[in-house]
Amino acid sequence: MTTNSAGVLADTAAYAAAVEEAKRAAAAYYTAGESRLDDDAYDRLVRGIAAYEEEHPQEVLDASPTGKVAGGAASGDVPHTVPMLSLDNVFSAEQFVTWTASVERRIGRPVAAWSVEPKLDGLAVAARYERGRLDRLVTRGDGTAGEDVSHAIGTVLGLPERLGAPATLEVRGEILMTQEQFERANTVRTEHGAAPFANPRNGAAGTLRAKDRAYRVEMTFFAYGALALPGSGELTDTLAELPHSEVLEYVAGLGVHTAADTAVAPRTVTTVEEVQAGVEDIAALRATLPFGIDGIVIKADLAADQRDAGSGTRAPRWAIAYKLPAVEKVTRLLDVEWNVGRTGIIAPRAVLEPVEIDGSTVGYATLHNPADITRRDLRLGDHVMVYKAGDIIPRIEAPVAHLRTGEERPVAFPEVCPQCGSEIDMSEQRWRCTRGRDCRVVASISYAAGRDQLDIEGLGATRVVQLVDAGLVRDFADLFTLEREQLLALERMGETSTDNLLAAIETARTQPLSRVFCALGVRGTGRSMSRRIARHFASMDRIVAADAEALQQVDGIGKEKAAAVVTELEELAPLIGKLVAAEVNMTEPGATPPPEPGAEPEEGAEDGAAGLPLAGMTVVVTGAMTGALEKLSRNQMNELIERAGGKSSSSVSKRTSLLVAGEKAGSKRSKAEDLGVRIAAPEEFAELVETYLTPVA
Ligand code: IVH
Predict the structure, then answer these.
(1) How many domains does the chain have?
(2) pLDDT of residue 697
(3) Are residues 160 and 299 located together in one domain of the fold?
(4) In this structure, what CATH number is given to the domain that contains residue 20?
(5) pTM, entire model
(6) Do 460 and 419 have their domain in common?
(7) Long-range contacts made by residues 27-34, C-beta under 8 angstroms, separation at least 24?
(8) Fewest CB within 10 A of the end CB: N or C in the chain?
(9) How large is the average pLDDT for residues 666-673?
(10) Which residues line ligand 1 (CB under 6 A)?
């Protein structure tokens, strides 16, 4: 489709393509229950079409969504007594003011009163009551005739089978699923092997149409209008003359549900400013509502005002929908992460190209389970429809298949538990690590024993599994109280392996605080952050006593991370207590603690590194180390740099003071040369930091 930069359709062909696209999107929306364009994109498309038609009225196509009620919904075979119209939209306060002016111009007087109410995000239905009994339920269809969905009677809360009085009338309103009903529906559906609904709206659409389901799911009705039917008798005049607000009160009095009992109850006001305030109130409450709304409907309240304003073929002229931003957007699926929960459930999570939805940026979405990924045929690189409402965790609806380029790749499923490497139990829809709750225990102990943390040689994942299974350890502090006999009693544990392991654990007891802290596995504190924290506070006591503000003094810790670390440390207090009791080292050699708040800084204490060989220097290491440094891992090199007063970094920039370049140094070396950064060979560097080569205990 060709549009110029302002989104205006350029020519007849572009107009025809836009109509075609809108038709396809509308068909997908109403028939398959899945929309191919998000609401914003669809509205933009229709506005573009309308603008073009305004300029070229002779070219208007029959299939145009502008002249049709509901943009081409599937029609049914039950004629509506009075057409079920749609609503025109405004998107801003200015547009709304222009619209009210046009209504008042048309009727030749100010509108006496306005009703301001939520635009419920579901499906329009007409409920026909004969002498107080619910006789028929009909969808809007194409506005002229709808589908008979009377089979749903009895599953819709708020639509009683009997009214409080034997009235004959048609109540019109919206059927939707509340968030709770939606979640319940998806639980029931997945239990029956059916794909979960992507969002409450699709849930309501699918459920309303479904006839012979093996299970029942509940929906909710909200009335927004009523009219007389043949046989209404006296009610005919009453309904025609009552203000809209009183019609709603009347049906509510008969026992039909309206929005009156919600936080966004319809209100009647007289000035445009009051309408605007009502719009803002409802918009502000949107996120807290237990059901979805996609805008606010403003209606002339008095029957006389409505009559004089009249209706077009598609929409009444006395009402307007003030649309709120869409809660569905199209974005790209970049990756799928597999996270292991506390109980060992392995849950996929979609990593998305960040997209702004309803005022917040969405970067992740839940995916239910692996089967769900297969069923929806999601592929990496796909354009996907993402749905988010209020505080609800964003969900992926469906891939937008016609936007595929062929470059999309299948989602890789894990073969072993991504956390601990054990087997996966795939017998249920939700995959689970065969270790269940112990998965976390094994993973966290293995991490703590790793080379860059406590460096306990001989304690691989298999051995950890063995210790956990034997009930000897529940966390890594338990390692420090293991007894020789306990180890000897285990399978494949001879005297030598036992003694070696115990010796490795003894050495681990004296590791510097930075490594002990790192072993705790506090989120967001990897090796280098742990070193910074340990050097800053010098002892575990001080780290634990630090509040968020104190933590922010550490380079690289912002407000959010500080708060998260404080919370996690509180949770870890029992484990830290056990480590202290097991006499594990809790101090950082060579580090000076920060002055107490309010205390006079000691002389020279502002820079604990002053006088050290790398003071004030940022050092990068690349290539293979040789000579005295040969055996050091990158982490150990970084530790060495920091012991000697420098800062370690992994990338070369203008701020780099020194590059230690070993054999086979590549691009970092050339970059340092380009930038004129000082380069040292491993041997030269070893001399510079000679006295710091062995960690001081
Ligand atoms: S009045 C003749 N009031 O929005 C007036 N409609 O986009 C027509 N809707 O077709 C409807 N909440 O399905 C009205 N409070 C409300 C509504 C509402 C939701 C739906 C309805 C309508 C559609 C138009």
Answers:
(1) 5
(2) 44
(3) yes
(4) 1.10.287.610
(5) 0.55
(6) no
(7) 27/72, 29/71, 30/70, 30/72, 30/73, 30/74, 30/205, 31/74, 33/197, 33/202, 33/205, 33/206, 33/209, 34/198, 34/202, 34/385, 34/397, 34/398
(8) C
(9) 92
(10) 85-87, 117, 119-120, 124, 174, 224-225, 297, 316, 319, 321
